[in-house]
Amino acid sequence: MQTKKITLVGYYGYDNLGDDIMLDCILKEIANQIPNIKVEIICKNSENLSSILSKYEYVNHIEFKSKNKFQNFKIYIKSIRNSDITIWGGGTCFSDEDGIGNFKYFIFNILLNKPFAYLGIGIGNLNKVRSKIKTKILFKTMLFATIRDNTSYKFAKRKYIQKNIFLTSDLSYLFKISNKRIEKPYILISFRDLRNFYSSSEIEKRHTNILNFVSEIAIKENLQVLFLPIDSVKDSAINERNSIYFSNNYSIKSEYILDNKLNSKINYIQNAKYNFSERLHSLVISKFCHLNCVGLSYSPKIDRFFEEIDSKSYIPYDKEMNQKEIEKAFSYVPEISNLEEIEKKTKTAKQNISYLKKFIYAEET
Question: Where are the beta strands (DSSP E) in the chain?
C-alpha cells in the first residue's frame, strides 16, 4: 500500500483529560491498523501532548500560534495541501455551545477541494439557525463521519445526510486503564465551566446543592473532599472557587488539585471513594474501573453514555440538580458496570479507524 498522509485536528493541547485520551487512542489504533501512514497533527503544545506524541514516531507536530490567527491559517493550509485527508478526532464537535465541526478551518478544505472527515464524534444541541446551516454545509461536503452514539447518528441521518455516515462508539473505549488502585478516603469533585449552558445563578444553585449533599457524605464517612479540574484550562477557576467556598462554609477538610498530567488525573479518579463529575471522560474512567461515581449531567452526551452502559447513577441533563435527584442518583452508586456492553463498545470503537483506512485507500482497491 502507498504511504498516505493525514492532517489531524481536534481540541488538543489544552490538557483536557477526555481529548488527551481520545488522541492517544486514535494514534495507537492507527499504528495497529494502518502501517503505511504519516500523521501531521496541528494544535497547541502542552506537556501532556508532548508525552503522548513521543510514543509515535510516525507523527509530526505542527504548533498553532494561538494569538496569530493569520499565521494559523497559513500553517493549516500548507498542511492540508500536502495531505490525503484531514480528520477531526473525537468529542461533541457539533453544538451551539462548543462550536460547529471546525467550520472556520474546514471551509478551506471545501474551497481547496481537500477531503475532510470526522472520527468518533457526537452531536449536541443544535437550535441556532447559524449552527444548522454550518452543520448542513459540513455534512454535505465531508468525505465521511463516524458517530459515537445512536442518538447523534439517527439525528444526522434524519436531518443532514444519508450516506458515508457510520455508527461506532466513543474512541475512549480503546483506552487501556490499569485496574490497580488504592482506595483513599476522599470524595472527588470535578466541575465544568458551564457558562455556555446556564446562567450564573443557575450554576451557583446547581453547585451549592451538590456541595451540600457531598458534605453530608463526607461528614458521615469521615472523608476529605478534593476538587480536580478535568480540563486544566477551562475548569480551573470554577473548581478553585468552589474549593475555597467549601473550605469556608463546611467543617470538612478540602483541597484544590491543579495537576495537568494525564496519568495524575486518572490516578485521582481511580483512587477516589466517590467521584462526582460534570465531565464525561472522568465518568467513563470510573465506570470502566467499576468505581463509585455520580454523573452530574449538563448535556445529552453524558445521558447517552449512562444509557449505553445501562447505568442509573446520574442526574439527567433535563432534570433539576436538587437534593432529591442527587440522592436518587447516589442510591445507584454501588451498581456494577455492564461489562458485556462495554466490551461491545470497545469492539465498535476500533471501527472508527477501520473506516478511516477504508476511505483513504479507496482508490487503490
Answer: 4-9, 37-43, 59-63, 85-95, 99-100, 116-123, 144-147, 165-167, 184-190, 224-227, 254-256, 272-277, 293-296, 314-315
